[in-house]
């Protein structure tokens, strides 16, 4: 298949969002390091957002000139309606409608020039395009191996049920490779009846992983060894041969080099703080909490007496999850959102920044001693790579599952009581911040986190497990 005289090109095809394009950019750098050309194909979102991801792609392209970014020409989408479609269904349908444009783009290159097409979960319909063009297709799973193990086993579990899993509440479910998983912690769409359109569609998408040539996972062997072993076990899904799984992470680090010509103010502030004395609070690129919760957090932080760096985003104005996902956010007004006098009273030992902070640099700073996080997988890996213990406050998607992996599997975090009911009290915030920064429990969490940091570094070194897995992946593609 391969012509040694032709420099081959890898086509990466993520859905356009910070949490998807960011990890794909790290993956692109791996391919570049191995001598491949890389093109990242993107589509325009149906609705422009003004959240912290706005302008992200433009900045990313400017700071990564070795990667070619290609935006598929826009297509009319009159049948896509945020008032009737769940965001997951909307995005899947949008990406499906781009199949013809993707096929035309791939066919514009000689077949021998194309090495592989790497897609993410939302672009699963592109498997059909790869089959038509005759290019090997791989899934890049931007979450962890534990989530992949659960997702892989779920279709068989749901196939034998007439009703959804919601009725099971916190009943623990047993899956190969992961700690017992409360049913309530699964992705919300999978708790509905198997006949529900969203649940049915998600299951169909998960089953299609088997239609790829393999799955690249953003994790490393020693972090999730049991989950990775399960995915290689014939008992994982009886009567089905799963594609190979390659653990190639952690793919983390700063990726917006072109935007940070001036160092962010919060890093200079951290420079003046004692080592491991600051708790960092951030809920990802999409996470935003209601004003009542922000006030409660502020009270807890003030009463704790501890140092903090807090990223605050404008709360969503809509109660409708479908509309909230696309909602344009107003400028963050800290005076209107936080208790009167809070910023002045905590000046010096606390810093609140609007909308965004350079998370990788913050977590890697010596002054950072704890991380209040929504448990998105990118944030989880960044904390692992920095050796920072976590206070887990999941919001959506697979974040409750990640919380289980962090607290029960890795044992480098504790959960914030109250998040399941949708409200964490000031007393809990105060207690947990003190726990992670000044108590023996926090020291034990940090000790294990630092050990995982060393393992993460070893995995990405020459001869490390993740480097070897990527080399094995390249060899397998060559031998197809």
UniProtKB/TrEMBL annotation:
<keyword id="KW-0328">Glycosyltransferase</keyword>
<keyword id="KW-0808">Transferase</keyword>
<dbReference type="GO" id="GO:0035251">
    <property type="term" value="F:UDP-glucosyltransferase activity"/>
</dbReference>
<protein>
    <recommendedName>
        <fullName>Glycosyltransferase</fullName>
        <ecNumber>2.4.1.-</ecNumber>
    </recommendedName>
</protein>
<dbReference type="InterPro" id="IPR050481">
    <property type="entry name" value="UDP-glycosyltransf_plant"/>
</dbReference>
<dbReference type="Pfam" id="PF00201">
    <property type="entry name" value="UDPGT"/>
</dbReference>
<comment type="similarity">
    <text>Belongs to the UDP-glycosyltransferase family.</text>
</comment>
<dbReference type="InterPro" id="IPR035595">
    <property type="entry name" value="UDP_glycos_trans_CS"/>
</dbReference>
<dbReference type="InterPro" id="IPR002213">
    <property type="entry name" value="UDP_glucos_trans"/>
</dbReference>
